[in-house]
């Protein structure tokens, strides 16, 4: 096959940032995706309906001409979050979901939740109104090995959320382990997971290839090869519990190439092409459409996109660096050749 088309996909997890970066991040995502779930980990975080509305206005102001891109906003959960504010934002069509960051789990997660019991009231409200909970699933205890933090989160926190709120729609974001795949499969269809392009392509060795590779560092961190294989199997399994979410997360090159580099991989310039490459390698190109364009909207209760996108087998080289808000950012797979090109 040298060309194929699928229903226009959506990105169910992206960091568009703010300010000068928005023009390029929005264009990079709108290039491939009709809608995107926009992460709220700005400084300060997006915790109110008003903040989300203003952020959405700033995104809408830079959507490229001719694009019908539609941002879906999220509410950043804090210990003190007001359930009525969350419910009002959902009813008013501003919030599409809430995002749970355990406090200090990742970039701009300092205001995250310190103890899941503190947000039981808002989780009860969300369960009642059918609003999805999106989870960064890692514990933050310094004494838990960084490669075990997802598994320990599943054991210590996620299991109790799913047990205590059986009707709550939950997305475990950017899963990185076979354990997460198993947990999702053992849960009902109200529990799902997103899978990133980078976790399908790299394992933890990528961070240590003949030296320290900051551009392969993200959170949750890539794990052993057997986990990458489990993720590829899950993504191509045609299960409605696994769908596309890029976690595209740009940081200026200087912030990555640093003594204490930021976590995050900017994959929006290559994301759909990389998914196509992975599904092709797995002999599952016929399953890409459901993963990219059907299972996400079905989970969120949104209509499928009407349009189509076409991918052609036509090798192209990923740029070494791209401009994001006047600063150089190294994209995922910089300098490498990709087989599939988006028309
Ligand atoms: O690698 C990551 N980068 N993981 C996250 O959870 C946050 C993101 C960011 O905002 O940079
Ligand atoms: Zn993220």
From TrEMBL:
<feature type="binding site">
    <location>
        <position position="174"/>
    </location>
    <ligand>
        <name>Zn(2+) 2</name>
    </ligand>
</feature>
<feature type="active site">
    <location>
        <position position="247"/>
    </location>
</feature>
<feature type="binding site">
    <location>
        <position position="136"/>
    </location>
    <ligand>
        <name>substrate</name>
    </ligand>
</feature>
<feature type="binding site">
    <location>
        <position position="219"/>
    </location>
    <ligand>
        <name>substrate</name>
    </ligand>
</feature>
<feature type="binding site">
    <location>
        <position position="263"/>
    </location>
    <ligand>
        <name>substrate</name>
    </ligand>
</feature>
<feature type="modified residue" description="N6-carboxylysine">
    <location>
        <position position="99"/>
    </location>
</feature>
<feature type="binding site">
    <location>
        <position position="247"/>
    </location>
    <ligand>
        <name>Zn(2+) 1</name>
    </ligand>
</feature>
<comment type="similarity">
    <text>Belongs to the metallo-dependent hydrolases superfamily. DHOase family. Class II DHOase subfamily.</text>
</comment>
<keyword id="KW-0378">Hydrolase</keyword>
<feature type="binding site">
    <location>
        <position position="15"/>
    </location>
    <ligand>
        <name>Zn(2+) 1</name>
    </ligand>
</feature>
<feature type="binding site">
    <location>
        <position position="41"/>
    </location>
    <ligand>
        <name>substrate</name>
    </ligand>
</feature>
<comment type="function">
    <text>Catalyzes the reversible cyclization of carbamoyl aspartate to dihydroorotate.</text>
</comment>
<dbReference type="InterPro" id="IPR032466">
    <property type="entry name" value="Metal_Hydrolase"/>
</dbReference>
<dbReference type="InterPro" id="IPR004721">
    <property type="entry name" value="DHOdimr"/>
</dbReference>
<dbReference type="InterPro" id="IPR002195">
    <property type="entry name" value="Dihydroorotase_CS"/>
</dbReference>
<dbReference type="InterPro" id="IPR006680">
    <property type="entry name" value="Amidohydro-rel"/>
</dbReference>
<dbReference type="Pfam" id="PF01979">
    <property type="entry name" value="Amidohydro_1"/>
</dbReference>
<comment type="subunit">
    <text>Homodimer.</text>
</comment>
<feature type="binding site">
    <location>
        <position position="136"/>
    </location>
    <ligand>
        <name>Zn(2+) 2</name>
    </ligand>
</feature>
<feature type="binding site">
    <location>
        <begin position="15"/>
        <end position="17"/>
    </location>
    <ligand>
        <name>substrate</name>
    </ligand>
</feature>
<feature type="binding site">
    <location>
        <position position="251"/>
    </location>
    <ligand>
        <name>substrate</name>
    </ligand>
</feature>
<keyword id="KW-0479">Metal-binding</keyword>
<feature type="binding site">
    <location>
        <position position="13"/>
    </location>
    <ligand>
        <name>Zn(2+) 1</name>
    </ligand>
</feature>
<comment type="pathway">
    <text>Pyrimidine metabolism; UMP biosynthesis via de novo pathway; (S)-dihydroorotate from bicarbonate: step 3/3.</text>
</comment>
<keyword id="KW-0665">Pyrimidine biosynthesis</keyword>
<dbReference type="GO" id="GO:0004151">
    <property type="term" value="F:dihydroorotase activity"/>
</dbReference>
<feature type="binding site" description="via carbamate group">
    <location>
        <position position="99"/>
    </location>
    <ligand>
        <name>Zn(2+) 2</name>
    </ligand>
</feature>
<protein>
    <recommendedName>
        <fullName>Dihydroorotase</fullName>
        <ecNumber>3.5.2.3</ecNumber>
    </recommendedName>
</protein>
<keyword id="KW-0862">Zinc</keyword>
<feature type="binding site" description="via carbamate group">
    <location>
        <position position="99"/>
    </location>
    <ligand>
        <name>Zn(2+) 1</name>
    </ligand>
</feature>
<feature type="domain" description="Amidohydrolase-related">
    <location>
        <begin position="11"/>
        <end position="310"/>
    </location>
</feature>
């Amino acid at each position: 096959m040298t060309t194929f088309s699928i229903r226009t996909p959506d990105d169910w997890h992206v960091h568009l940032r703010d300010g000068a970066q928005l023009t390029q991040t929005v264009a990079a995502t709108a290039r491939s995706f009709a809608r995107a779930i926009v992460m709220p980990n700005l400084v300060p975080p997006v915790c109110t309906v008003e903040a989300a509305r203003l952020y959405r206005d700033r995104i809408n102001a830079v959507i490229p001409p001719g694009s019908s891109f539609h941002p879906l906003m999220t509410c950043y959960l804090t210990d003190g979050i007001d359930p009525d504010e969350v419910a009002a934002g959902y009813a008013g069509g501003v919030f599409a979901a809430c995002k749970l960051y355990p406090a200090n789990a990742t970039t701009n997660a300092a205001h995250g939740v310190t103890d899941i019991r503190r947000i039981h009231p808002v989780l009860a409200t969300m369960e009642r109104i059918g609003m999805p909970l999106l989870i960064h699933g890692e514990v933050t205890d310094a004494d838990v090995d960084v490669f075990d933090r997802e598994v320990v989160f599943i054991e210590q926190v996620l299991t109790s959320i799913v047990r205590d709120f059986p009707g709550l729609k939950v997305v475990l974001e950017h899963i990185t382990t076979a354990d997460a795949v198993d947990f999702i499969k053992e849960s009902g269809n109200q529990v799902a997971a997103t899978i990133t392009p980078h976790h399908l392509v790299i394992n933890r060795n990528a961070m240590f290839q003949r030296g320290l590779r900051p551009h392969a560092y993200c959170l949750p961190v890539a794990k052993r090869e057997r986990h990458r294989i489990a993720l590829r199997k899950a993504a191509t399994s045609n299960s409605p519990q696994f769908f596309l979410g890029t976690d595209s997360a740009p940081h200026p090159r200087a912030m990555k190439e640093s003594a204490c580099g930021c976590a995050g991989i900017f994959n929006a310039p290559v994301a759909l092409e990389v998914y196509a490459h992975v599904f092709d390698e797995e002999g599952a190109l016929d399953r890409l459409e459901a993963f990219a364009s059907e299972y996400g909207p079905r989970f969120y209760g949104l209509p499928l996109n009407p349009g189509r996108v076409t991918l052609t087998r036509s090798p192209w080289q990923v740029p070494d660096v791209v401009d994001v808000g006047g600063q150089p950012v190294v994209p995922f797979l910089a300098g490498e050749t990709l087989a599939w090109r988006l028309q």
